Amino acid sequence: MTKTSFAILVILILATLAMTFFWANRPRRVIIDVAVPKNFPLESFSHESFEELLQIYVTADGRVDYERWYQDPASVQQLNSYLSAVSQFSPDNAPHRFRGRNDELAYWIYGYNAYVIRSVLDHWPLDSVTDVKAPLEAIKGLGFFHQLRFSFGGEFKSLLSVENKQIRKRYKDPRIHFVLNCASESCPIARPGLPVGDDLEQLLAQASREFINDRQNVEVDHTDNVVYLSKIFKWYKDDFVSDIRLHGGSTENELIAYVARYAVDDLADDILKTQGYEVRFRDYNWDLNSIH
Q1: pTM of the predicted model as reported, rounded to 2 decimal places
Q2: How far apart are CA 41 and CA 278, in angstroms?
Q3: Which of 60, 63, 59 is nearest to 189 (CA)?
């Protein structure tokens, strides 16, 4: 076999493997075929029916009672009804329903979180979202976050696409990383309240403070001169650093500068003493955020 023939053979093999990978992992659409909630507004968008469910199934510490939710067909139907509204209307195809930026952002955040819960219930019982695998999964979470596609205003999108293209790219607000819930232990906690408009600002600020002041997400070790951070700060470092620079921040470590913005009490004192400290990122716990 000549070198040219061998090269062509290798290319054909690689092309076949690539086609096999993409065919096996082709998108799987999740269809919501029910009516929108009763009395759903004609000129705005309501998250009330989803909020009612969260008030029932989210515990005080932000865990979700998936088992009880799964066992109640009426509650599953109510979630599907809310998602029917998400699937039909969005800021893109029905902008008149959203009064401003915060209402639009709330739609994407709450729609994302609702579809995450729907997917967990679809695959229940489940120990981790990473157990929902694509046929040929080269990256952890590919099945759950990329292969599954959900309708937002008639356009089918993966959860990964909604997070990166609709939320991060459009709104450029790193605080969203403290309210998007991926149903895992290391995620921000689930929250039963779903404010919109000006009230969304209060939620984003509160969620940021609570996440950052949780020792599982931010901890200072003065013995070894290390600041331990949630891996969220590594994955989305550019978002946090860009926000610090946008507001005129200039420090030795911009991630620590972002943490300092929301640190209170003992953590605030500890952060002041971290000049020259190393930053390390904790492993992400993908265990389901269900009640124990």
Answers
A1: 0.90
A2: 52
A3: 63
